[in-house]
């Protein structure tokens, strides 16, 4: 599976949203499914799927689908979306 | 000074001479900002001060005003979230209007303060509550919100209780065993930790023998005071049943989320750099000049920009113990909270006081 597929799958599973809604415009708290509870579920999902452990500040900063890509790349340079 | 600079200030290192001129200047600027941007705030101030914000002081609003009015300093379309909390003294809930910037700032400040107590790394986290408390996505309880707010400091979040508030001993033992070589983070509400965890473990004669943990708890002492449980008793019983656990209570309120006051090793609550505590006399609400005398707690915080909650008169009683000289080494004011103002006394307070 490509990194982008894993990422989209993680969002679909954690936020319980259809694939079509996981795109560049998906933002924390703008989409009603992405609230603070879902956020921690998403974090756990991403950490599991990409085998990383985020810093506290990055959890706070991960406010959009786009931002998630950017942060993940910081943790693992071999990931590209 | 803007927030990019303010957030970089050390949390507990500036003394009075270093902090207060800077803090007071920021607070006065903030009051003027709200006077300009909040129609609600301007109306209140104009009414009480004959159409002008006082030059030399920042008036405090009674915290219960947020239960009766939606006070905001932003336009309706910029509202990002409204946080609510149930008060213990009435059925009314406080409604706090946040824009994106203010919500993010609250989280960042909370994180910066918590790192002082937990360290910079996320820790395995044991939550002394049941998982259902956060399940209902669209109507969080105050407990749920509190747990949410703290969960970003942990990983492998494990709930210690079942839905009927009994201990899920299997989950707890497994968690402790799995992380026995690491420091763990335990979080819960004061009364729940005491009643449904410590007391129940004690009854069963169970000792968990935790090697290294930090426990943070909050939510007020009222119910424990009713049972005549002191902070000292709380800590010593907790250490008996749990093991080697550093215990820190913290004080804070939804009206000023972010600036929390955490209890140090010497059992005093400490002001972080971004907030200040003042004690007011019960009789006339004048500022108590001397330390060591009980009065009503006023909290000032630089965080609120989307709502005029920068200076609030609480309904809590407390004492400022001192400033810059706590035995734990932290600078700034340190204090204790003694309980809540009686209902009858609350009625005597006007809705604002400077
Ligand atoms: Zn101290």
Secondary-structure element pattern of chain A, one letter each: HHHH
Number of domains of chain B: 1
Count of helical stretches of chain B = 11
Alpha carbon gap, first and last residue of chain A: 12 Å
Order of helices and strands of chain B: HHHEHEEHEHEHEHEHHEEEEEEEHE
Proportion in helices of chain B? 25-40%
CATH homologous superfamily heading of chain B: ANL, N-terminal domain
CATH class of chain B: Alpha Beta
Helix fraction bin of chain A: 55-70%
Radius of gyration from the alpha-carbon trace of chain B, in angstroms: 20 Å
- CATH topology term of chain B: Rossmann fold
Shape of chain A: globular
* SS-derived structural category of chain B: alpha/beta
Low-confidence stretches of chain A: none
CATH arch. level architecture of chain B: 3-Layer(aba) Sandwich
Topology:
The complex is a heterodimer of chains A (81) and B (354).
Chain A: H1 3-15, H2 36-50, H3 56-61, H4 65-75
Chain B: H1 3-6, H2 16-37, H3 39-48, E1 60-62, H4 65-68, E2 81-86, E3 93-98, H5 100-118, E4 123-128, H6 142-151, E5 154-159, H7 169-178, E6 184-189, H8 190-203, E7 210-218, H9 222-226, H10 231-242, E8 243-251, E9 261-263, E10 269-270, E11 275-280, E12 295-301, E13 311-323, E14 333-340, H11 343-348, E15 352-353
Residues 264, 266, 268, 270, 326, 328, 330, 334 of chain B line the site of zinc ion.
């Amino acid at each position: 599976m490509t990194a982008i597929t894993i990422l989209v799958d993680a969002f679909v599973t954690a936020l319980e949203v259809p694939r079509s809604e996981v795109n560049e415009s998906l933002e924390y708290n703008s989409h009603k499914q992405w609230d603070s509870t879902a956020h921690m579920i998403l974090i756990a999902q991403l950490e599991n799927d990409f085998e990383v452990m985020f810093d506290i500040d990055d959890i706070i900063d991960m406010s959009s689908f786009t931002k998630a890509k950017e942060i993940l790349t910081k943790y693992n340079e071999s990931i590209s979306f | 000074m803007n927030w990019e600079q303010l957030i970089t200030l050390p949390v507990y290192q500036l003394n009075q001479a270093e902090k207060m001129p800077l803090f007071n200047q920021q607070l006065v600027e903030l009051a003027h900002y709200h006077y300009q941007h909040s129609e609600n705030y301007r109306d209140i101030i104009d009414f009480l001060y004959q159409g002008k914000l006082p030059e030399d002081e920042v008036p405090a609003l009674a915290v219960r005003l947020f239960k009766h009015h939606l006070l905001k300093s932003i336009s309706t379309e910029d509202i990002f979230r409204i946080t609510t909390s149930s008060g213990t003294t009435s059925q009314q809930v406080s409604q706090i209007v946040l824009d994106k910037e203010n919500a993010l700032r609250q989280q960042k400040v909370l994180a910066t303060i918590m790192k002082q107590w937990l360290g910079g790394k996320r820790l395995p986290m044991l939550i002394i509550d049941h998982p259902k408390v956060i399940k209902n996505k669209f109507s969080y309880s105050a407990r749920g919100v509190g747990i949410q707010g703290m969960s970003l400091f942990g990983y492998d979040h494990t709930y210690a209780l079942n839905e009927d508030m009994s201990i899920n001993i299997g989950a707890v033992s497994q968690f402790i065993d799995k992380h026995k070589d690491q420091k763990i983070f335990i979080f819960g509400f004061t009364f729940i930790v005491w009643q449904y965890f410590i007391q129940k473990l004690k009854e069963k004669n169970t000792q968990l023998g935790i090697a290294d943990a930090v426990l943070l708890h909050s939510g007020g002492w009222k119910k424990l005071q009713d049972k005549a449980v002191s902070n000292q008793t709380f800590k010593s019983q907790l250490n008996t049943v749990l093991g080697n656990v550093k215990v820190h209570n913290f004080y804070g309120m939804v009206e000023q989320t972010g600036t929390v006051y955490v209890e140090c090793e010497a059992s005093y609550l400490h002001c972080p750099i971004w907030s200040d505590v003042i004690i007011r006399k019960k009789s006339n609400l004048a500022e108590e000049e001397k330390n060591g005398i009980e009065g009503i707690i006023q909290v000032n915080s630089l965080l609120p920009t989307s709502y005029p909650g920068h200076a609030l008169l609480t309904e809590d009683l407390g004492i400022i113990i001192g400033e810059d000289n706590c035995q734990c080494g932290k600078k700034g004011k340190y204090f204790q909270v003694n309980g809540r103002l009686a209902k009858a006394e609350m009625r005597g307070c006007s809705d604002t006081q400077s």
